[in-house]
Amino acid sequence: MSQSQIAFRAEREADWQRLESLVTRAEKGALRKLPPQDVLQLPLLYRAALSSLAVARETSLDKALTDYLESLCARAFFVVHGRRQPLGAWTRQFFGSDLPAAMRAIAGETLVATLVLVLGIIAGYALVAGDITWYSALVPDAMAGGRDASASAASLKKTLYSTGSQNNGLEVFAAFLFSNNSAVAIFTFALGFAFGVPTILLLLYNGAMAGALIALFVRAGLGFELGGWLLIHGTTELFAIVLAGGAGLSLGRAMVFPGRMARLAALSRAGRTAGTAMMGVVLMLMVAALLEGFGRQLIVIDSVRYGVAAIMFGLWCLYFYGVRDE
Question: How far is CA 196 from the centre of its chain?
Fold first, then answer.
C-alpha cells in the first residue's frame, strides 16, 4: 500500500468507524434512542463515506477497502433513506392508505385502459362473429386447448363445468391464462414509458383474444355459461390488468405531458405512484389465481359464479375508490 493510500485511510477511518457504529445501532432498532446530535451526524457521515468510496474506486485502492466501503454505504443508505416504521405500522399504512391513494391517482388512466380493453373485446367478437376463421388468427393454440371452430357445443360446454380428473385440460388452460395475464400486466406497466403506445396495443390484442373466445361460445349458444366461467375470476384478473395498464399509461403521460416539472422528475413521481399500484396488481393476480384454480373448479352453478364475480368486483371498487376520511 502506498503512502498516499495509507494517509487516505488514516484520515478518514475514524469517520467510517463512527458511521458503522451508528448504523449497527440503528439496525438493532436503537435509532430512536440515538442522541439528536448522532441522528444529525448520520447523513453527514454517510455522504462522507460515499465520497471516500468514489475516491477508492477512482484511485484503485485495495479491493478489501473498496468492498468494505460499498457494504457500509449500502447499509447506511437504508438507515438514512429507508422507512423507520415497524413492519406492522408500515403494512397498515400501505394497505390502509398508500395503495388506495395510488389507485385513485391513476383512475383516469385506468378508465382509458378499460375502454381500450373493451374496444379490443368488441373488435375480436365482431371479427369472429363475422368470419369464424379469424378465431385461429386471434387465439393461440396453447390458449385454445381444443376450443376452436371444429369443437361441438357439447364439448365446449364440458370444459366449463368439468372438475377433477374430468377437467379435460382445464387446469392447463387456467395456468396459461394466469401466466399470460400476469405477463400482460407486467408488460402493460413496464412498456408505459414508451409513451404508452405498447400498453394500448397489448390491451387491444388481449381484449381481441377474449372477444374471439366469447364469440365462439356465443355461436354455440353458451354465452351466458361462459360469462360465469370467465367472470368468477375475471372481475379480479381483468381489473388487475386494466389497473396495470393505467399504471403504464400514467408513465406515458408523464413522458409526454410533464407539466411544469422536468420530464425525469415527472416520470420519477409517476413511477412511485405506479409502482405502488403495481404491488396491488400483484396481490389481485394472486387472488385471481386462487379463484381460477379453486373457486371456478368447485363452483359449477352459473348464478353462484356470477354472484362471486359481482362481490369481488364490488369489494375491489369499495377498497380502491370508496369514500375515505382524509
Answer: 16
pLDDT digits (tens, 9 = 90+) for 148-192: 777 888 888 888 886 544 444 445 555 555 566 666 677 677 666
Letter for the amino acid at 15?
Answer: D
Q: How far apart are CA 78 and CA 73, in angstroms?
A: 9
Q: How far is CA 201 from the centre of its chain?
A: 18
CB 223 within 8 A of CB 165: no
> What is the C-alpha separation between 43 and 41, in angstroms, rounded?
6
pLDDT of residue 166: 46
CB atoms within 10 A of CB 73: 20
Q: CA-CA distances (angstroms) from residue 11 to 5, 14, 42, 71?
A: 10, 7, 18, 20
C-alpha span between 137 and 144 (Å, rounded): 11
The conformational region for residue 146 under phi > 0 = left, psi -120 to 50 = alpha, else beta, is left
How far is the C-alpha of 219 from the C-alpha of 109, rounded, in Å?
34
pTM of the predicted model as reported, rounded to 2 decimal places: 0.68
Q: What number of other Cβ atoms are within 10 A of residue 282's Cβ? A: 13
A 10 A CB-CB count for 92 gives: 12
